[in-house]
Amino acid sequence: MKPGPDREYSESVLAAELHPERFAVERQHMVETQLRARGIRDPRLLNVMASIPRHEFVESRYRDQAYEDHPLPIAAGQTISQPYIVALMLELLQLDFASKVLEIGTGSGYQTAVLSKLASHVYSVERHSQLAGQAADTLSRLGFANVSVVTGDGSMGLAQHAPFDAIVVSAAAAEIPPALFDQLREGGRMIIPVGPPEAQELQLVRKHAGKALISLREGCRFVPLISDAGSP
Fold this sequence. Notes:
Blueprint: H1 5-18, H2 21-35, H3 43-51, E1 72-73, E2 79-80, H4 83-93, E3 100-104, H5 110-116, E4 121-126, H6 129-141, E5 147-151, E6 164-169, H7 178-182, E7 184-194, E8 200-208, E9 211-220
Parallel strand pairs: 3-4, 3-6, 4-5, 6-7
Antiparallel strand pairs: 1-2, 7-8, 8-9
Helix pairs in contact: 2-3
């Protein structure tokens, strides 16, 4: 009898669990073909993304696709960004080990994990309590200790922990949220997708003499940043 799709799925998950070295090979392939080949050059970032088990941050049904070049669905109608977009955004922040980072949109916690290996401490804000709880549990289980996951309105940031050396926003805003810019230290950097769903652009924002210096990077597609004030 030919196995059905459920059996084929179960067998593929079991095979992956029994052969973890397969994921190491897939991670390295991801780094070489999706990141380095497309212009990501930061060696520290490349090494970190070659080491972090992205498959641990996706649902078991999608583990076979964990290192492919596309987003994947997670709970609460959200997504985990494709590896290249994660790498591009974090490379633009130019982080060092002393950096204190604010992340808006924890999602699955994968990007949080990458940030934790590049910075001193990561404060991550997630609107959906289900996602925040799952991400915090996964990060703790995998030993990422220098992270704090908070449930809240990402558009308001975390003023009690400001200023931040860098801010990364994983949801698209109609404009740069003033509260986030205020919480960026002088000389700090923020990367954020801005614009409507059909015309979003990544913007690199640098704070110089209290003003925003904005560089447009490339087109993208993110879920909207929702504010408790009611406006996306």
